[in-house]
Amino acid sequence: MKAGNKTGILVFTLLGLSEDPELQPLIFGLFLSMYVVTVLGNLLIFLIISFDSHLHTPMYFFLSNLSLVDICFSTTIVPNMLVSIQTENKAISYMNCLTQVYFSMFFPILDTLLLTMMAYDRYVAICQPLHYMVIMNPRLCGLLVFITWFIGVMTSLLHISLMMHLNFCRDLEIPLFFCEVTQILKLACSDTFLNSILLYFMTGVLGVFPLLGILLSYSRITSSIRKMSSLQGRQKAFATCGSHLAVVSLFYATGIGVYFSSSMIHSSQKISVASVMYTVVTPMLNPFIYSLRNKDVKGALGRLLSRAFSCL
């Protein structure tokens, strides 16, 4: 492959999870099932929040956006993998690969920032309850979500604009089932110094700092809860934070696993397993975490189902 070739002739090969032909039907069925559950679960959360007026609060506004992002994130990756297995064609064109890289960075950025906003929302609700509706007003919530999307779009575009100047001149095999930025940079034969600097910088700014913000919010929340004299009040405060903490832990644990496995581990199987947890399993589990641990969501689901049955 000649260096500098960035036309439609340039293709990458996604090695996937396994090259064993006997495992392909099992992998196809498993990922198809998880994708359907992801889409239906997150879509149900989005619809419940949209149609139930009891859930028209800042916390559930952010949650509805998170559910929408999870649907889009899975759709960026899983359908292409399923088509690849079905057609037995592991090749992906240069432009399609860059498109997948763009969205595989864009949606996790949105996830990170939305989870940070949800932590801030919980901080205001528990630590400043009397001023909650004044601080977390609809205008501020809308502005925060807009800023989140803007940061995601501009950061991902910056990455892609730098990647479009790279040359590739060796075996273009990616040991994953989707195009991931660190794996693409490893295949480049031109200088990737600026790309790496930008990647590390953005990982710090959009990964570490939001996590620090979440930890700071929960340190304040914990301090406020410990000062509460009522046991019932403490339990209610913990209940409102439990689902969010579970989602944050799952998201960051799998994200850190993908980051370190891609950068430091050379076993393609371990990298693929970490990527599956991050890109497929986490978006699938989020709606279950919020629905099973949240009385408001379960109550809204019951009202929605009773309304649907009454119309039959």
TrEMBL record:
Boundaries of every G-protein coupled receptors family 1 profile domain copy: 41-290
Subcellular location(s) per record: Cell membrane; Membrane
Keyword terms of this UniProt record: Cell membrane, G-protein coupled receptor, Membrane, Olfaction, Receptor, Sensory transduction, Transducer, Transmembrane, Transmembrane helix
GO CC terms of this entry: plasma membrane
GO molecular-function terms, A-Z: G protein-coupled receptor activity; olfactory receptor activity
SUPFAM superfamilies assigned to the protein according to its UniProt record, in alphabetical order: Family A G protein-coupled receptor-like
Pfam families named in the record: 7tm_4 (PF13853)
Transmembrane portions of the chain: 28-49, 61-82, 102-120, 140-162, 197-216, 237-259, 271-290
Topology in the lipid bilayer: Multi-pass membrane protein
CDD domains named in the record: 7tmA_OR7-like (cd15234)
InterPro entries, per database record: GPCR_Rhodpsn, GPCR_Rhodpsn_7TM, Olfact_rcpt
Record's function text: Putative odorant or sperm cell receptor.
Family as reported in the entry's similarity comment: Belongs to the G-protein coupled receptor 1 family.
Protein name (record): Olfactory receptor
Organism classification: Eukaryota, Metazoa, Chordata, Craniata, Vertebrata
